[in-house]
C-alpha cells in the first residue's frame, strides 16, 4: 500500500469562472477537498457520499470525529436522497432556501456514518451563494462543508482567511468574495416538526421560523454539563471560534471604559462613535448597522489576533438586548460567537 505523503500541498485560489468551476467539480468527484464561498462563512467542501472524502475534511481541519458535518445540497431532489422529509421541511425550504438555514432530519442509509458522527440524523442546508451553487450543480453531488478553518479557530469570511490557515493542507480554494452574512447558519432540529429546536443561532431567528410553521420554536435546550467528554453532544463545546489572544466581553464598551484600557489591549466596539479615536479601537460597523458588524466580526478578530502589535487582550462588546426586531436573531448569533470566543474551555 502506498504510504500517505507528508509533503505539503501547494494551495491555489481560483476565480469562479465556468472553466474553474468545471475543474473543481472534477476534483470533488475524485474525492479531493475544495474550499468554497457561502453567504455565511467559507466552507471546506467534499463529497458527502464518500467516507474517504469526509475523512479528508476531518483531517485537513483537525476536527474531532464526534463533531458532525452539514451536508449542502443544490435542490430538494438531493434532500430526498439523504433524509426523510416531513411537511415542515417544505414550508421552511419555500421560505428560507436557498439561504442560511440548516435543518436536522432523520438520515437515510446513503449518508456515511462519518459525516454524521454516527448519529441517526443529518444536518442539511441549501446555500445561496451563486458561485457555490454553480459548483454544487456542476459536480452533481451533495457536499459536506464545515467552516474552512482549523478546528476551534475563527471561521473564514474571505478566500485569504482560508489560505492563511489551511495553506499546505488543501489544494483548492474557490474565491467568491467576502461573505455577505459573516456568521454561520441557523441550525434547527426538525426531527419532530411539532417542536423544532434551534441548536445554533444564526441570521434566521426562532420568531421567523415560528411564523412560517405556526408552532412554538424552542431556543437552544439548556445544556446539562456532560458527565464525561465522550458524552459531549456534537458541536456543544463552549470554546470555539477562538482567537489565541484572550477575549474579554463587555455588555457595553463605553468611551470611559475604552479610555481606561492599557495601550496594548484592543477594543472591539460594535459601532463607531466620534468620541472614539485611540489607536487601539476597531469598531465593527461605521454605519451603526448590526448586519455590517456581523459581516466584519470574524475578519476583525483574525486581524487583531495576527496583528504585529501583539495585543494582550481583545475587549469585545456584546450586542444589546434592545435591537430592532429584524436584527434580534443576528444579535443573538453575534453574542453566541463572542461568548464562545471568550470561553476558557
Ligand atoms: P459547522 O462547523 O458550521 O459545519 O457546523 C456543524 C455543526 O452542526 C456541528 O458542530 C453540530 O453542532 C451541528 N450538527 C451537524 N449535524 C448534526 C446532527 N445530525 N444533529 C445535531 N447537530 C448537528
Ligand atoms: Mg465551524
Write structural notes for this entry.
There is one protein chain. By secondary structure, this protein is α/β, with parallel strands linked by helices. 30% of the residues lie in helices and 15% in strands. The protein is built from 10 helices and 13 strands. The protein has helices at residues 18-29, 51-61, 76-82, 87-96, 130-139, 159-166, 206-213, 255-259, 290-305, 328-342; strands at 12-14, 34-36, 43-47, 70-72, 101-106, 121-125, 143-144, 172-174, 186-189, 197-200, 247-250, 265-268, 313-317. The strands form 2 sheets. A 10-stranded mixed β-sheet has the order 1-8-2-3-7-4-6-5-9-10, with helices on both faces. Strand 9 (186-189) and strand 10 (197-200) form a beta hairpin. Helix 1 packs across helix 5. The longest helix is centred in the last third of the chain and has 16 residues, at 290-305. The chain is globular, with a radius of gyration of 20 Å.
Query: How confident is the prediction overall: mean pLDDT?
Result: 92
Instruction: Write the CATH architecture name of the largest domain.
Output: Alpha-Beta Complex
Order of helices and strands: EHEEHEHHEEHEHEEEHEHEHEH
The poorly predicted ranges are: 224-234
Instruction: Give the count of structural domains.
Output: 2
Oligomer: single chain
- Number of helical elements: 10
Main sheet: which strands, in order across? 1-8-2-3-7-4-6-5-9-10
**What would you report as the Rg, rounded to the nearest angstrom?**
20 Å
Biggest sheet architecture: 10 strands, mixed
Strand content: 5-15%
- Which CATH class of the largest domain? Alpha Beta
What is the first-to-last residue Cα distance? 40 Å
Which structural class is indicated by helix and strand composition?
A: alpha/beta
